[in-house]
Design brief:
- With about 300 residues, the protein is of the alpha/beta class.
- The chain folds into 2 domains: about 150 residues, Periplasmic binding protein-like II (D-Maltodextrin-Binding Protein, domain 2, 3-Layer(aba) Sandwich); about 110 residues, D-Maltodextrin-Binding Protein, domain 2, CATH 3.40.190.10.
- It is built from 11 helices and 11 strands.
- Helix 3 packs parallel to helix 4 and helix 4 packs across helix 11.
- The longest helix is centred in the N-terminal third of the chain and has 19 residues.
- The N and C termini lie far apart (about 90 Å).
Length: about 300
């Protein structure tokens, strides 16, 4: 009886200590990985594409993944620079701009079509312009109204302007002020409507819109396809390795590389990207884009 009382007395302080001890701190939820892309197409199409990709990456990476749209190309580069975006789908020029402004950022993957990408010059059929095979045929565009896509687009402005200047055509040679529509979808419609007689468009968007029946080929036609150049690619922010661990970038690469067109769900994502697969890339592949960007004053 005495022993039982002693045990009871000893247990009382322990119970008091346990009651006063702070509760265990719950494990913090992982920080969402923020993905984004330059707004080169219709916002609804981009929301559908990157919403599905975010769901896929969330499952593969084991962390929440969120898609954050941006208002324009410049906003995308700025948001990446300040760390608001972790993984961004950039065009050649914006990818270079983002990496130059964000030391340590890396180009990691591109589509199978991006090492040999092209722009397509198109025209309203009422303009009387005819298709041509030689780049010097661009001279025929002098005196017509013309619009680019975004001012910072690789396929909708930078490379087309480079090929125009190679053929001896300057922006002053077009009738009126050169336009900038903001996206490839909008510029196709502007030419189709006759608002501008001619323009240049991303080849992948052009082909995709034709296949889906969204282009009236009685009103707009292709004139010339440019030589190949490197374009779109994924760029990862250097803080990703700090926030998620040194091997996390490899996990992102593996998740995107394993997308398989033989799997219906994967094929749906790849089809929205207009690709059969993703392949590795690196910063050095865009050296010529940087050189041209500096020559045309798009990179200081």
């Amino acid at each position: 009886m005495i022993r039982a009382k002693l045990v009871s007395l000893l247990l009382i302080p322990l119970a008091i200590i346990a009651a006063c001890a702070p509760a265990a701190t719950p494990t913090a939820a992982p920080r969402p990985l923020i993905i984004s892309a330059i707004p080169d197409q219709d916002p609804e199409k981009l929301q559908r594409l990157y919403g599905r990709l975010a769901d896929y990456l969330s499952t593969e990476l084991g962390v929440p993944v969120e898609y954050k749209p941006v208002t324009d190309y410049t906003a995308s580069v700025t948001a990446f620079k300040v760390g608001d975006l972790d993984l961004v789908w950039y065009g050649g020029l914006t990818g270079v701009q983002a990496r130059l402004q964000t030391p340590g950022a890396e180009a990691i993957l591109q589509r199978d079509i991006d090492a040999n990408f092209h722009s397509v010059f198109i025209a309203n059929t009422a303009s009387g312009l005819q298709p041509f095979a030689d780049p010097n045929g661009l001279i025929a565009l002098k005196g017509y109204t013309f619009t680019f896509g975004s001012e910072s687009s690789t396929s909708g402005r930078l490379m087309p302007q480079y090929f125009l200047e190679q053929a001896g055509v300057t922006l002053a040679d077009f009738e009126g002020e050169t336009g900038f529509s903001g996206s490839h979808d909008k510029t196709i419609k502007l030419v189709e409507a006759g608002t501008y007689e001619t323009r240049v468009v991303n080849e992948q968007v052009w082909k995709t819109r034709i296949e889906s029946g969204e282009v009236d080929l009685a009103k707009v036609q292709a004139l010339w396809t440019t030589p190949a150049y490197f374009d779109y690619h994924w760029v990862v922010h250097p803080s990703v390795a700090d926030n998620y661990g040194p091997e996390f970038v490899e996990k992102i690469e593996s998740a995107l590389l394993k997308l398989d067109p033989a799997t219906p769900a994967d094929k749906e994502i790849l089809d929205l990207f207009g690709a059969n697969k993703f392949v590795p890339t690196e910063n050095a592949n865009y050296a010529s884009i940087e050189e041209i960007g500096r020559k045309l004053g798009k990179i200081q």
